[in-house]
Structures are given as C-alpha cells and as structure tokens.
Amino acid sequence: MSDVEIGMGKDGRRSYTLDEVAIVPSRRTREADDVDLGWQIDAYSFDIPVIASDSDGVTSPATAVEMSRLGGVAALHVEGLWTRHDDPTPQLERIAEAAADRDADHLAVLRSAYAPPVDPDRIGRRIEEIRSAGGTACVSVSPAHTETLLEPVIAAEPDLLVIHGTVTSAEHVTTSDGAPLDLKQLVRRLEVPVIVGGCASYQAALHLMRTGAAGVLVGIGSGASSTTAQVLGIGNGAATAIADARAARMRHLDETGVYVHVIADGGMATGGDIAKAIVCGADAVMMAAPLAAASEAPAAGALWSLGAFHHELPRGHLRRVDTQGTLEQVLFGPAVGPDGRTNLMGALRRSMAVSGYGTVKEFQKAELVVTSPPSVRPGSQS
Question: Which residues does residue 44 pair with via DSSP β-bridges, in sequence order?
C-alpha cells in the first residue's frame, strides 16, 4: 500500500475501516442452507465463528454455557466480577442502573464493584461451573496478571486460554524491577491452546504468531465502549489491521507450516461487518455489544471493558445497548429489524451464499472493493 504525505516531514499509510469496504459477489451463488459456518482451533471445533467477548457485561458462566450450546464459545475473564464475588448479581445490577443514568458517576460505580481482589479459588470453581454444564471452558487473563494467576488457571484445566490486553506484544522492554512477561516462553510451556492479542499491524501479529499461539486477536480500541483512540491516539482501521494479520499468517505458514488463526476483535455491529472481517482474513470474530443486547446478558445491556476503571488512566466508558432478543435470536433470528443487528449468522450465511462461497475458508478468497467513506453510523456497536 502506497504512503500518503501527511506533511512535509511525515508520511503514513491509508487505513480502512470495515465500513469503507464491500464484498464483490463472484460468478456463482449457492443455497444458503448449504453454507458451512464452522471453524476449528487446535482440537476444538465450533459451528459458528463467534467468540463472545471477555467483558463482564457479555460473558458469565451461564452465557458461556449458552454460547457453547449455540455452537460458539465465550471467554470468561478471570479478573472480572465472577472471581471477585461469590454472587456478583448486586454489582451487576448497580452497574446496569448507572449505565441507564447519564448523571451517575460511572467510574466510581465500576471501581467499587471491582474493589475486592480476585480470589484464585473462584477461578477453578467458575471453570468447573462451565464445564459441568457442558460448555467449552475458555478463560481470559490480562498480560499484566498472567504470571500471577497462571497457576490457578492451569490447575483448573481450561479448554482455551486467552491472553488479552489493549496492546499485547511478544517483546516488552522495561527498566523496572522484575522480569517482564515472555510470551514465547510462556505459550510454549503450556499444553492448553492460547489465543493472544490485541494487535493491529503486520509485524506485531507476526511476532505474536511466533510465540506458538494458536490464535491472534486483531483490533485495538475499535469497540463500542473503548476510548483508547481518544486517550492514547493509537489504532488502525479494522479492515487494514485484519488484512495485515492475514499477510503475517501467510508468512508464518510459509516459514513453519503452522496455521495461526486470526480473530477480529471489536468494531463489528452487524452480520455484514462479520462477513467483511472474514473476507479481510479473519477466521472468527470476538463480539461484545451485539451479544450484550441479548436478554441473557449479565448486566441487562450495560457494556464496559476492564480498562474503563483503570486506577490511573481509564480507557473506556460505561454504556448501555437496547435488548434485541434472546442470545439465540441475536445469532440465529428471526431478525427484529432490517438493520443487520439480529440473526447475525443468518446474515453471514446469506452473504456467503450470494457471493458463491461454501465455507469460511473459501469466503476469505472473496474480492473486496473500497467504497466512499461513509458517515458515522448512528448507534455503532461492536
């Protein structure tokens, strides 16, 4: 991609969001019922390419089990409310009330809810709660606390481990005391498949793939509740970031023969967004706001990230999304309106069918075009 001149002393690349690209149908079409949405990471196969976000407003043990029943997977954050409280229901209710009140002190409410420390014993209990109900036990931890919480996490034998930060790198340079987290050594000594991220560039994705990770999360600050772009000024358009990670995956595959899955994280509100993320190169997507709009969501539509109440530099806000229906309806319909925010998998299936592709892997070969930059979409979610 050619550089553009920002000024006489600085060049930059043009970056594209998902709203700025469109899928071009091929010469054939298919029956929607013949389309296969399945994907596999390591030994685990899923019927739909969706990971429910590790936000406490999206994933609880109960919704993790329901996502598994529906063919997907959900990531439960081991630093969230479910490991800080025996019963986080009162905290979730207060957060939901605050999200509906513009005058409420959202930061104070969140900090109060997360004030108790993480109880390592609860990590194992939550994982067993998911597993005993027949769900896939996928848990998430931040890079800063991975080493601290790794022992109780691994002892509980989760099926998948997600190491998820705003920006996660394979190499962290520090002059402070204590050894930094070495993702390459960490991932290679674990038997559980690991997904790491986020990242938003070719080099960052390639370095994360070289740690031995089974999957890489791609996306920085593009979620509905994130203010990373405003606070830190960092980011990359989702379409460009996913395409860059796709190129990194191909180089890593050529070098090692190992295929690393690219998981688009954030910035997706509709079935069309999911479809375009896959054509850009994603194998699956991690979603927050559309799933927080399900009636089973733990916080009645309230949505926030763990960075929203950081003790020094919050990078997110508490917001609320309107309930659209059950989790099954959000994913599989019937849709409640023509905006593409419900029956997400039906929309993806139809997009693949009218474009002529029968599997997610084949759909990645579809042609994309750049469209004129759109106006900001009202009520954009991720």
Answer: 41
